[in-house]
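Still learning. Any example?
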Amino acid sequence: MSNNKVKVGIIGCGIISSTYFKNARDMFGNYEIVACADIDVERAKKKAEEYGLAKGCSVEELLADPDITIVINLTIPFAHADVSIQALEAGKHVYVEKPLAVTREDGAKMIKLAKERGLRIGCAPDTFLGGGIQTAIKLVRDGWIGDPIGATGFMMGAGHEFWHPAPEFYYQHGGGPMFDMGPYYLTAMVALLGPIERVTGSARISYPERTITSAPKYGQKIKVEIPTNVVGIMEFKNGAIGTLFTSFDTRGGTTLPSIEIYGNLGTLVVPDPNTFGGVVKYHRTGPSEWADIPLTHGFADNARGIGVADMAQAIIENRPHRVNGELAYHVLEAMHGFHDASRDGKHYVMQSTCETPEPLPFGTSKLFFHA
């Protein structure tokens, strides 16, 4: 570390990397991205030049750099485990894009290795640290809805072949609406309600073959390998029961909310967990009206990377970080649990648990960040 900033390297210089580069430079003041790497070294060098980094290089060179403390893994999901394990074996803390891994076995291997090496794992999404969901968490904790009884989540879309330039992955194993978007919803629900004890679910492939209508692969066919309409039911440790609908098969649109939380004293509408801000709505039991609640926390714009900032500060302060591997593994297991329950026709009992992430302090907008 220099100037009290944690030095960070990025592996994977695709589209999403630009947001990490920009936010590290403009928004967060406690870590500095000093190098980037990619399987295409020339692409890494171009990114390094674009964002003024000391170097763009191979993965091996980045992992050998003794000054780099955290590696941000932005590779494709199938490479998440392999690259993260390489980084851990090189003595680096790891922050990986969602999901933690494609399989439970790889996710568990990552968690075990990190513990053995005394290293940290963080994993997106970090959207629950944004002002929208942090406000909702504060309202739940402050008793505005009373005792939580239930929750619903809806992620309904038409699929990626209509707009994505390379949508094939989303219909292969490790893809599908649950593994693509489920981490946002499940992470938010666990942050709001705590860990899950048992799940069940139903899943189906509605269209065995899909046709790409976006450029540059217009007209190509995709064989669908993963369920594209998945409904999960969760029993939380605190007694609440939740449902999560995820679909790539909704061709006519929807008016459903992203997340609602129900308690014995009221209902809370939680913003889209794929964003950092949004509108929080509250309705108290009885003849009241919906009220928009002002956000109690900052970082309501695109604050992607706030999870890395919290990890960096946790390293500096020697405390737990919020966007951690145990939370990510718990979410990964629940997603597989929905699919397992549908296939086997029975409940799936969760083998993992996690601590409910500690909320950011009330009013947080500049804590360990740029003024």
Summary: The longest strand covers residues 148-156. The radius of gyration is 20 Å. Residues 6-123 form a domain with the Rossmann fold fold (CATH 3.40.50.720).
